[in-house]
Write a structure and sequence with these properties.
alpha/beta, 38% helix, 7-stranded mixed β-sheet, Dihydrodipicolinate Reductase, domain 2
């Protein structure tokens, strides 16, 4: 089918996939000059499709076929998850639409050949999400490359911190998936640079490769030139760099700061040796600052994305050539396929050595939501060690999890069928939104909690351990007020303390008000700030890292700070499951042995932390933050959302009598059956 677009008409744009990247594309389209209109969206998750449709003011379709037939797009953005790009792209091409595909383009060289051949037969264009080749830092690097003389080598370095996954604790397959998700960016940038310096026909091949689930190091050969690729989930600091070294000097493109640094001279003369470091330091300071300021003021989270999409739209509109030629897409895909096979092979061999705990066949079943999270993983470990069979509920199952014996893939914000909880003795609800705005916390904390209760009722499960947070307690009225289990929570309609507190307080209110009428008995545990002695990092209530070892501390060392070690908190949750009838209905979980900021830092130091803290009064810090928020909002003439930062950070005194008693039972007397004398019911 031939494309239906006339150069004088607006492009009819559709989206397949409505996740985070699709929303970034949607935001970017506001900066595209080519006339276009969004005519439809499809996502396998109907709710996600409808939400995207509402944002884009466009219809949501239940199938790809319906979208293509009814909306008749002549350009389609394929933003489905990695590994699922081929079929939507093929269907869009067959329907006569040009296609922009998120990275990685496709998984295999054969798939790339098939799509590109199909596009050529129908006179259509394809572009992949290789936006770094249009990043201002990269284009500036290419402009200055002739000054480097004969290019000798190119280095592409990418170090990355995965969101929501711990490189130390996660399984090798999960880590490999994260590594492969980021691999395309440094790979396609390196290949593109090699293509610029290598005479046609370009042949790029892998000369050597060393990999693990968290690291990949490879040497690519293009004729007489070489490129070195280094990707790591563990190396620090976070970096995305491309350096080109030649006979006349070296230049480095920094994609995080959108800058190019380098003296671009051989550095062999005395003056060059003396002044090159000074020149490079000056350029690094000026250009890095300029790049960061531009990114903040322009709100461009992905430099190069608008430029690449804009170039593709212009090419479609003018019936020109795609900004990424087919040969480039073929090379990158073939190299990605080979490197991915190495990474996956190493991960499979590593996974074979991991042992999963095996509970007895008649062991009671505990369902844990948020089982992949920081606290959830520790909870499942303690439950499994105590002999329970553990079922995890998550959007993305982790089959390597050593302490979860079965998974249910489920988005609790959408629904919670009774089958997910069938056969459970107890449910531990540890899932909640940890970031995002009020919409995210509405879906992933409030809606998820309500859906969970109805799912439990449908399955006939009557015992719930709900993980809340100490942050839900209303701010103290006086500096000397000592808060305990009788202290009221923040009202559900109070948003002054931010989305997280609003969501957590609302979820707890839902449990208190709605669990009993559904026949569910609940135990609510409110941990203080969770800390990990194996990775001692100050919690957010204490302060923020400034630079290197230095941290900004809120308040002063002697102020109280409620904390509990994550393993200790997980032991309390497990004890509550095992001694449900004896457990208090409500527990503010704090460690009585760590009562102040100074005491926590001493404990961190005992476990190897070598940080230093500069203390700032909390009122002063709150005033500075408020002033900054208003200054940033001034250009848009919009008042920032209310945020009672002082109330969030102000120190609180907590009664630890009940927590101390339960901690003693949970950590020293795991088989104790005597009921705590201070047990309280949810109120």
């Amino acid at each position: 089918m031939k494309p239906q677009h006339n150069a004088t008409e607006r492009l009819r744009v559709a989206f397949i996939g409505a996740g985070r990247m699709a929303r970034l594309h949607l935001d970017t389209l506001g900066r595209i000059s080519t006339a276009h209109s969004i005519v439809g969206v499809h996502d396998k998750d109907a709710d996600a499709g409808r939400e995207f449709g509402a944002l884009a003011s466009t219809p949501s379709y239940t199938t790809i076929e319906e979208l293509l037939a009814a909306a008749r797009p002549n350009l389609v953005h394929v933003c489905t998850p990695a590994g699922t790009h081929f079929e939507p792209s093929r269907k869009a091409l067959l329907a006569g639409a040009h296609v922009y595909v998120e990275k990685p383009f496709v998984e295999t060289a054969r798939e790339a050949e098939d799509l590109l051949a199909l596009a050529a037969r129908h006179g259509l264009l394809i572009c992949a999400g290789h936006q770094q080749v249009r990043d201002p830092a990269y284009t500036a690097l290419l402009r200055r490359m002739p000054s480097l003389g004969d290019v000798v080598q190119i280095d592409s370095v990418f170090t990355f911190r995965p969101v929501g996954i711990n490189p130390v604790r996660a399984g090798p397959r999960a880590l490999a998936t994260e590594l492969l998700d980021i691999l395309p960016h440094p790979l396609y940038t390196l290949v593109h640079a090699l293509e610029q310096i290598t005479p046609e026909p370009v042949t790029v091949e892998i000369a050597s490769v060393t990999t693990s689930p968290t690291e990949l190091h490879a040497v690519l050969r293009a004729g007489e030139r070489h490129g070195r690729l280094s990707v790591s989930l563990r190396a620090r600091p976070i970096a995305s760099l491309l350096s080109i070294s030649g006979t006349g000097g070296a230049l480095v493109a920094d994609f995080l700061r959108t800058s190019v640094v380098g003296a671009a001279n051989p550095g062999v003369e005395p003056l060059e040796k003396v002044f090159n470091p000074l020149v490079e330091a000056w350029r690094l300071a000026v250009r890095s600052t300029s790049g960061v300021v531009k990114r903040v003021t322009r709100g461009a989270g992905y430099p190069g994305l608008a430029e690449l999409i804009g170039a593709f739209y212009a090419a479609v509109d003018s019936r020109g050539s795609s900004p990424l030629v087919p040969e480039h897409l073929k090379r990158v895909t073939a190299l990605y396929e080979e490197l991915a096979a190495n990474v996956r092979g190493v991960a499979e061999r590593a996974a074979a050595f991991r042992r999963r705990s095996s509970p007895a066949s008649d062991a009671p079943l505990v369902v844990v939501t948020g089982a992949r999270g920081f606290f959830g993983r520790e909870i499942t470990k303690h439950l499994a060690r105590r002999g329970y069979r553990v079922r995890g509920i998550t959007r993305s199952p982790d089959d390597e999890h050593p302490h979860v014996h079965e998974w249910v893939q489920l988005d609790l914000s959408r629904a919670a069928p009774g089958d997910a909880f069938a056969g459970a003795d107890t449910v531990v609800h540890a899932a909640a939104a940890s970031a995002g705005g009020y919409d995210s916390h509405q879906r992933n904390t409030l809606d998820a909690t309500r859906n969970l209760l109805h799912g439990m009722q449908a399955a006939g499960v009557t015992r719930l351990v709900h993980v809340s947070s100490l942050s839900v307690l209303r701010p103290p009225r006086t500096p000397w007020e000592r808060q305990d289990e009788r202290t009221p929570v923040v009202p559900p309609d109070d948003r002054r303390l931010g989305p997280y507190v609003w969501g957590k307080a609302g979820a707890e209110c839902i449990v208190v008000a709605e669990a009993a009428p559904l026949g569910i008995e609940a135990r609510i545990i409110r941990p203080g700030a969770l800390v990990d002695w194996s990775n001692p990092e100050p919690p957010g209530l204490l302060g923020r890292r400034l630079f290197g070892r230095w941290h900004l501390g809120f308040g002063r060392p002697g102020l109280p700070l409620p904390v509990v070690e994550v393993g200790t908190a997980a032991a309390v949750v497990t004890w509550t499951v095992a001694r449900f009838a004896d457990a208090p209905g409500l527990l503010n979980l704090v460690d009585p042995a760590i009562t102040t900021r100074r005491r926590l830092l001493e404990e961190f130091a005992r476990h190897g932390w070598r940080g230093r803290v500069v203390w700032i009064p909390i009122p002063l810090f709150a005033t500075l933050v408020h002033a900054t928020r208003y200054a940033l909002a001034l250009p848009s003439l919009r008042r920032p959302a209310p945020l009672a930062l002082y109330a969030i950070l102000r120190p609180r005194q907590y009664s630890s009598a009940l927590a101390g008693e339960i901690l003693g039972l949970a950590t020293h007397e795991p088989t104790a059956r005597t009921a705590p004398s201070l047990a309280t019911s949810p109120a």
